[in-house]
Inverse folding.
C-alpha cells in the first residue's frame, strides 16, 4: 500500500466518514505509522553505522597525523639536511638540519627551486645525474653548495626517487669537518715523514761522529804503549782519551733520547771555548806519531785572506 503524507492522513482523520470507511482509514493510518517507525529505526541504524565509520576514520587520520608529526620531529633531530622536492624541483619539506646548515627557514625555503636557491655544484652534468636517478632510483655523490651567508659547503648528497609521486627525498651531510680533518692528517703525515727523515739524517750523522773519536783514542793508546814516552806525553794522551770518551758519552746520551730525535728537539749546547785548544787537540789526534809536528803546517793562502775569513766569520 502506498504511504500517505501526513496531510492526507490528517485530512482522512478529520473527515466524518462512514463507520466501515473509518475503520479502513484508521488501519491505513496505523500501517503508515508502523512503516514510519520502522523507517526511522532503519535510518537511525544507518546513521549509527555512519557515525561509527566517521569516528574510525577520524581516529585513523589522527593516528596518521601523529605518526607524521613524530617522523617530522625525528627528522628535525638529524644533523643532516633532509629535503623533499617535487618533480619540478620545488621544495616541499625542509627540516631543522637544513635550517642550521644553510640558514634559510622552512617557510623561506618552501616552494623555492632547490638548486637555484643553493647554487649547487655537481660532480658531473645534471643530465647524467637525472638519467641515473630515473634508471636506478637513487644517486649518491659529493656536491658543493652555497649557504645563505655565502659559505661554500661541501656535502655528501643522497637522493632517492619515489616512483609513484615523482618526489625526491634528499639528504646532505656536511663534509667541512671531515675535509679539515683530512687536511690535518695529511699535514701530520708530512710532519712525521719530515721527522723520520730528520731522524735518519741524525742517526747517520751520529754514526759518523761516533767514529771520529776512535782515531784520537787509538793514537793516544799508541803513545801510552810507546816505551820512550815521557810523563807529559802520557798525561796528554790520557787527557785526550778522557775528552774523547766524554764526547762519545754525550753523543750516546743524545742517541738514547729518542723523543727529542723524533720531535726535532735536539738542542745545540753552546759555550765559550778556546780555539787554540781545539786546534791543538785536532792536530794531536790527526798524527799517529808520539810527538806533535815541530813546525806549523803551512796553508795555501795568504795572511790577508785568512784575516778576511776570520773577520767575516759569524
Amino acid at each position: 500500500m502506498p504511504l500517505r503524507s501526513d496531510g492526507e492522513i490528517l485530512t482522512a482523520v478529520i473527515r466524518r466518514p462512514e463507520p466501515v470507511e473509518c475503520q479502513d482509514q484508521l488501519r491505513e493510518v496505523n500501517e503508515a505509522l508502523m512503516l514510519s517507525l520502522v523507517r526511522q529505526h532503519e535510518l537511525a541504524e544507518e546513521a549509527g553505522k555512519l557515525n561509527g565509520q566517521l569516528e574510525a576514520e577520524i581516529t585513523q587520520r589522527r593516528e596518521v597525523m601523529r605518526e607524521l608529526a613524530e617522523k617530522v620531529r625525528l627528522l628535525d633531530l638529524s644533523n643532516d639536511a633532509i629535503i623533499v622536492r617535487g618533480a619540478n624541483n620545488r621544495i616541499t619539506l625542509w627540516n631543522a638540519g637544513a635550517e642550521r646548515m644553510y640558514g634559510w627557514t622552512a617557510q623561506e625555503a618552501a616552494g623555492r627551486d632547490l638548486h637555484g636557491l643553493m647554487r649547487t655544484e655537481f660532480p658531473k652534468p645534471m643530465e647524467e645525474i637525472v638519467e641515473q636517478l630515473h634508471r636506478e632510483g637513487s644517486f649518491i655523490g659529493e656536491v658543493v653548495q652555497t649557504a645563505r651567508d655565502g659559505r661554500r659547503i661541501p656535502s655528501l648528497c643522497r637522493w632517492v626517487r619515489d616512483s609513484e609521486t615523482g618526489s625526491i627525498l634528499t639528504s646532505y651531510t656536511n663534509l667541512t669537518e671531515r675535509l679539515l680533518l683530512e687536511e690535518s692528517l695529511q699535514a701530520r703525515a708530512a710532519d712525521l715523514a719530515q721527522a723520520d727523515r730528520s731522524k735518519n739524517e741524525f742517526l747517520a750523522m751520529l754514526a759518523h761522529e761516533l767514529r771520529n773519536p776512535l782515531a784520537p783514542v787509538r793514537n793516544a793508546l799508541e803513545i801510552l804503549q810507546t816505551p820512550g814516552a815521557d810523563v807529559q806525553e802520557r798525561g796528554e794522551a790520557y787527557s785526550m782519551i778522557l775528552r774523547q770518551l766524554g764526547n762519545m758519552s754525550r753523543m750516546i746520551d743524545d742517541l738514547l733520547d729518542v723523543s727529542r730525535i723524533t720531535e726535532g728537539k735536539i738542542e745545540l749546547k753552546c759555550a765559550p771555548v778556546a780555539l787554540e785548544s781545539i786546534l791543538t787537540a785536532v792536530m794531536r789526534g790527526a798524527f799517529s806519531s808520539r810527538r806533535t809536528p815541530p813546525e806549523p803546517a803551512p796553508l795555501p793562502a795568504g795572511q790577508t785572506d785568512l784575516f778576511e775569513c776570520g773577520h767575516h766569520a759569524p
About this structure: The two ends are 135 Å apart (CA to CA).
